[in-house]
Every structure is written in structure tokens, then in C-alpha cells.
Amino acid sequence: MGDKPARWGLMSTARINERLIPCLKRSERNELIAVASRSQNAANRYAAAHGIPKAYGSYDEMLADPAVDVVYISLPNGMHTEWSVRCAEAGKHVLCEKPLALSVEQVDQLREAADRCGVTIQEATMMRFHAQTSYVRKLVAEEAIGEVRMGRGLFTFTLERPGDIRLDPAMGGGSIWDLGSYCVSFARTVLQVEPVEVFAVQTTGPTGIDMSFSGHLKFSTGAFFHFFSSFASFTQVDADLLGTAGYLHLDLPWVNRVNQSANLRLVREAGAREASTFGDGLGNRKTERRVFVGVDAYQDEVESMAATVLDGAAPVISLEDSRANVAAITALCRSAREGRPVVL
Ligand SMILES: NC(=O)c1ccc[n+]([C@@H]2O[C@H](COP(=O)([O-])OP(=O)(O)OC[C@H]3O[C@@H](n4cnc5c(N)ncnc54)[C@H](OP(=O)(O)O)[C@@H]3O)[C@@H](O)[C@H]2O)c1
User: Fold this and answer.
1) Which residues of 116-150 are buried (b: 16+ CB within 10 A; e: fewer)?
2) Atom 44 of ligand 1, nearest CA residue
3) Which of 47, 114, 235, 274 could pair with 52 as two cysteines, CB 3.0-4.6 Å apart?
């Protein structure tokens, strides 16, 4: 076990950093020592505002600092692969924001670089570090709702920020990459199987990215999962799973709000099934609830990264896992473009 904390550098002054900075600061096994920006002035201002000791005016300068052990990459999606490889080649471990890459070939490049350079590259899909996700995975594995037949997820909001990186096709924009990627990751994680066939439709905006995306996945077990992601809808998140013996509902499946509880509702039969003409009675049910209070999945994410870097613990999200997620998303995108189902 390493005695010294893992020393982190932030690559960019992105807004998402603000979720990780307090976690790194309160962590005993991590230390935030640097931030890099394309502009020295911006880096200086950011370092002063957030109490970060070192400020670099280019990403390369931070990579040349031997004191930095781990780089948190919060760049636009289209820059994740290039900079993850450059970090690895500078001997740095990487926690890179989701989506880790935009093609399976890019994930293969990352795997090659991580192996060659002897570092860890891990995707920062916060939801995967959340206790609720592991709990749902366990419930599904124990067949708490029987065999899963269908799942559903919503992740939507209204994007009102002209010039946002999410609108730029060259940067890997689109609601599927930004929001739908969580739904796909959730479904694969809790079902613990991979999709075998997908179908999708989308509505594109003026920049060419999808503003709304409706994706359907069929898994090798026969389970279906449907999700809707959108930059042009009322803000909503939720997910559910329907099985042969029960139903699960989550009101905050992929958003981490430390001050807001995540509520899980499990509905199952209570005793003998109610007699009804078609076997479709809704009586004899019990509802159980589990509430996750005060969970900060970003804290769990940085602690987990410390365990990987300092103790050699296996990453929560392996590169094989990220590759499978990217494979499913790129198949969904292809289906939406070509207007036909795609077999994986
Ligand atoms: N895990 C989560 O909960 C979560 C939530 C939101 C976003 N994300 C992910 O985090 C990443 C960043 O998202 P964000 O919304 O926080 O980003 P953002 O605020 O738009 O910031 C992106 C940063 O990237 C740098 N950058 C370098 N080249 C750029 C370019 N050509 N155009 C724009 N910015 C450029 C800029 O920093 P400098 O100018 O300082 O170099 C900029 O501040 C994305 O991959 C997103 O998917 C994750």
C-alpha cells in the first residue's frame, strides 16, 4: 500500500472539475497539486480561485512535471484519446471523463498506450462508482425481480449555451455521447451482459449533432432496454427495470446530488398471485424502498482511482468495459444514421 497520496493535475479548467476538486481536497489518499489550461492567465486565475498550488499555461507543461502522478482529463470528448495517450507516454495515470473515446479503435489505442507505458487509463463515469449502481447490479444478479425482460432510462435537459462543446460534431457532441452513454453503461452494468442488436432514431440540430436520441438495445438474455436522451427537453432523469417477478424504479440513476437522496423502489409479489381472469391482477404486492443519502460518487471515484494507482487495485471500469460501451454507442449511432437495426 502506498503511503504517499496520489498527486493530481487537472487537464483544463472545465466546469466539471468543480465536482472533483472538493473531493480531491478532502481525500487523504489524493492531493491536487496542479491545473493546466490553454492559457496561462486562465490557469493562474483558476489555481488562485481553487487553491491549487501550480498553474500551467499548456497541457504539455503539466505533463513535463514529474510531481504529477495522475491527470484528470476534462477536455471535450473529441480530445480524450489524444491526451490520454500523451499522458500515458509522460508516465501519468489517467482518469478521463466520459465518453472515454468515440470509437473502439480509439479504445484499442488507449489499451496499447496503457500497456506500453505501464499506467492505468480509466473512464470517469461517476455513476459506476455510486453505491446505488452496485446495489442494483446485486439485486439483478440475485434475481430479486426475476429474469429482466425490459429496462428504460431517461436523461434529458435543455441545452441553452450556444457554442457548448456538446453541440460540436468535431468534438464528439450529441446527446447520445453526453447523456445516452450513461444509460447504455447502466444497462450493460446492471444486466452484466452485452447487447447483441440495437436500433435507434434521432433528431438532429443545426450543427448536425443529435439533439434527441431514442435508443433500443436487445441483450443476449433477451432483455430489452430503451433510453431517451435529449438536449431539447424538460430536465428529467429516471430508470426502471421490469422482470418476471418484480419491478425496480430509480429516481436518480445517473445524477449525483450529494444533498438529494437517491430513491430506489422495489415492487414484488407478496404471497400468492392474485386470482384474476387473465392473471393480470395488481393485488398482493409489496413495495420496498432503499434510500441512498449523502452519497458522493465523485468522492468514491477519486478514492477508487487512488486504490488503483497506489495499491494496484483493479479499476472499477476496465478498458474492455469502456470498449464494449463505445461499441454499443457507435452501433446505435450507425443505426440512427442508416435507419435500420445493427447487429453487434
Ligand atoms: N462525470 C460527469 O458527471 C460529467 C458531467 C459533465 C461533463 N462531463 C464530461 O466532462 C468533459 C468536460 O465537460 P464540461 O462541460 O465540464 O466542459 P467545458 O466546461 O466546456 O470545458 C471544457 C474545457 O476543455 C478545454 N478545451 C480545450 N480545447 C477546447 C476546445 N477546442 N473547445 C472547448 N474547450 C476546450 C477548455 O479548458 P482550458 O481553456 O482551460 O484549456 C475548457 O474549459 C466532457 O467530456 C463531458 O462529457 C462529465
Assistant:
1) ebebbbbbbbbbbbbebbebbbebbeeebbeebee
2) 76
3) 47
